[in-house]
Amino acid sequence: MLPTRIKTAFAFRWSDALVPSPWVTTKSTTPFAYLIIAMGLASLTLVNRAEVVANEQPNIVIILADDLGFSDLGCYGGEIETPNLDRLAEDGLRFTQFYNTARCWPTRSAMMTGHYAQAIGKDTLIEGKRRGAHNLRPDWAPLISVPLREVGYRSYHSGKWHIDGKPTENGFDRSYWLRDHDRLFGPTKHFLDDKTLKPVTDDESYYSSTAIADHAIECLQDHAAEHSSQPFFSFVTFNVPHFPLQAPAEDIAKYDGRYDDGWQAMRQRRFERMQDLLHLPAKLSPVEPDVGPPYYFADAFEKLGSGEVNRPVDWESLTSAQKEFQANKMEIHAAMVDRMDQEIGRLLDQVDAMGQTDNTLVIFLSDNGASAEIMVRGDGHDQEAMMGTGETYLCLGPGFSNACNTPFRRHKTWVHEGGTSTPLVVRWPKKITDAGALRNQPGHVVDLWPTIADAVTATSRTEETPFEVIGLPGGYDRPGKSLLPTIVANTSVARDHLWWLHEGNRAIIAGDWKLVAAKDQPWELFNLAEDRSECVDLSHTHQERVAELSAMWIAETEKIRQCVDAYTGED
Fold this sequence. Notes:
Layout: H1 14-17, H2 38-43, E1 59-66, H3 83-90, E2 93-99, H4 104-113, H5 145-150, E3 154-159, E4 174-178, E5 190-192, E6 195-196, H6 208-226, E7 232-241, H7 249-253, H8 262-278, H9 298-304, H10 320-353, E8 360-366, H11 398-404, H12 417-420, E9 421-427, E10 437-439, E11 443-444, H13 448-458, H14 484-489, E12 498-502, E13 505-510, E14 513-517, E15 524-527, H15 543-568
Parallel strand pairs: 1-7, 1-8, 2-10, 2-11, 3-4, 3-7
Antiparallel strand pairs: 2-9, 4-5, 5-6, 8-9, 12-13, 13-14, 14-15
Helix pairs in contact: 6-10, 8-11
């Protein structure tokens, strides 16, 4: 399957795309024109606020994938070619039980602040009081880039944002913000240092993953040339393999025919590989044939045609046309992951060229599990166009999403393991002495803020403590824990519990036990030490445990509600 419009070059001219403005200077000797704006003058004084010791404080690179399945990477059992991330794992660590929030914007907010998204207005806590990515955060929940600036870091953002405010208003010195989530070949809404760029036209060579990496690399090249005495924070946020499924033709061609035997066979192969790689205490969870997309759009099936399937039914029950359509979608998903890995390789090569690999903390993860969603947005879907081009709008759907989340149950939006489990790869050669090892300690995206703060503070020679945020409501504290002891010495980090709520789906983990429920459904209880894939519900035989964890979930929810009421003035 090869798209008719082949894109093999990505020499998009950013200086030509800037919307003219009397406040913007676009002259630059580099492909990305650095926009000199008023806030830049204020940032010049910040370097003097901390004593920065070159090559001592770690550089930080966070790489975030979008809707990546737990088993999509080669180092987590997948067949997709991800040699650069696999190498990152060989040189670093893989976490086997790391969690996100099950959705895009709550994960980003939680990761960048160290708070549950509901506590800071980034996700709905109470039905009828909707809060999302655009609600204002309280002052006591700054993004990690803000205190990093206070201790002398320069911060760079490249890619999807999906957080409130603008990057350059939140501690970032430079930003390429891809706001168009519906067009990977021709975005109409994107910004350079928060200044509007012109829409990309059909005659320009552009693909989002390459453009995002280009900007990240450009920022690091500039950093090496102009700011080498300062540490850097690079926040690289790809918008793949999130729908629409679109990828360069040569990448799709690599997977031609790879998935023709269907999602059940793919799932079994991945499970067999991950048993040797990860040693999870898990069986391959039974497929739930009645669990389809979390939302239903009736018009989508008319637009997509008869090849679309909205349930993970037995592969052999599909028609030949349905099998071809579904397998082709998985080929594009794989190509998107493959291309992202290629671009990550270029980014890591840049860090290496700067001589900074040894003291750069690299963190890779996904914002949620693979998605079962099926919809058509953006410019619509042309059934006559080759699949994977900009003229098509495809979603992975529940069959292959279930396989991408092997061995777990459910998908993005659900807070079962399939929705919330992410690969987490960490590399920091200067501090990690057991490269290639696993970390089985549970962790959550709320832990990244305190982990970074701990890593920076441990190497700082300044008396300032900008990571100690004041003004938290009484009775409430940041739930995130530093995982630095786990990363450096494989030491367990004590915590009472981890908590989830999203669109009525709810869960809590305390010790080895997890209590979880889909919206409007009763609690299920699982012993994760023996059953990570949530196969054996113990709620009927351990009713006291259910009552204990349920009370714990209610107490945490009430604590968050009181926190929200305190800073919003609501009752």
